[in-house]
Amino acid sequence: MLLKVLYADEHLVAIDKPAGLLVHRSQLDAQEEVFALQLLRDQLGRPVWPAHRLDKGTSGLLLFALSAEVASALGQAFESGAMRKRYLALVRGWTAEPEGLIDHALARDPERPSAGQQLLPARTSWTRLARVEWPLASDARFPTTRGALLECRPESGRRHQIRRHLKHIAHPIIGDATHGKGALNRALAAHLGRQRLWLHGLELALSHPVSGAALRLTAPLGPEWQALRSLGDWQNG
Asked: Which DSSP category does 29 fall into?
């Protein structure tokens, strides 16, 4: 597999990570043998360091450093909130408002029960871009199923932050097996013709860790996102 490189210089490389590809080896997916880190290292013929994570199911912009020093600088920028991130998420239902801010502390490890864990501050702002109604009865109470396309801007970098925050406001991401609704996910996967986590890392805006120049890196939406517009009754906003 050749990874699509979106940006490269002597210090940084940004790729377009496909959904279903792990960033690096994980105990949670011990059976997986292919990783973005390994693929990019072999493709470039040199060591690389991931600057942040995207979940296995998430597609989009993934940034790597080409030295440990640059990786450390990028890590500090992510931790301090100096990097501005934009994601696109397809969620269950229509939000009551066109935009909002989720200010909800999260446990450090999403794989363990929250009780007894330290809670870390976490904030995500979001804007509703479009609404859709599918001719699909995923719940016996309703003849149709509603969804919304949200732009999400996390102000902190907790694990699974967007997924957990959207679940917190009762609008889980379609296809989220951990934080979503199984019956709805299965029904929509059959209707849309694709089973995936509908979350995409759209953009990173940052100061270059070496030159200080402003960078705005983007990852285009894949064809499956474009095909969504032909399925269901969509309204902007």
From this structure: G
Give pLDDT, residue 26. 60
CA distance 170 to 61: 26
- The DSSP bridge pattern shows strands 214-218 and 199-207 to be antiparallel
According to DSSP, the β-strands at 59-65 and 199-207 are: parallel
Q: What is the mean pLDDT of residues 100-120?
A: 83
Domains and CATH numbers, the chain: 1-80+208-217 (3.30.2350.10), 81-193 (3.30.2350.10)
- For the question of residue 139 being annotated catalytic, the response is no
Task: Tell me the per-residue pLDDT of 136-186, one tens digit each, with 9 for 90 and over.
Answer: 887 778 888 999 999 999 998 888 999 999 999 999 999 999 888 888 899
pTM: 0.91
Cβ atoms within 10 Å, residue 215: 17
CA distance 227 to 126: 23
* Contact yes or no for 151/123 (Cβ under 8 A): no
- 30 pLDDT above the threshold of 60: no
Q: Catalytic: which of 55, 103, 139, 176?
A: 55
As a whole number of angstroms, the distance between CA 163 and CA 19 comes to: 15
Residues listed for the chain = 237
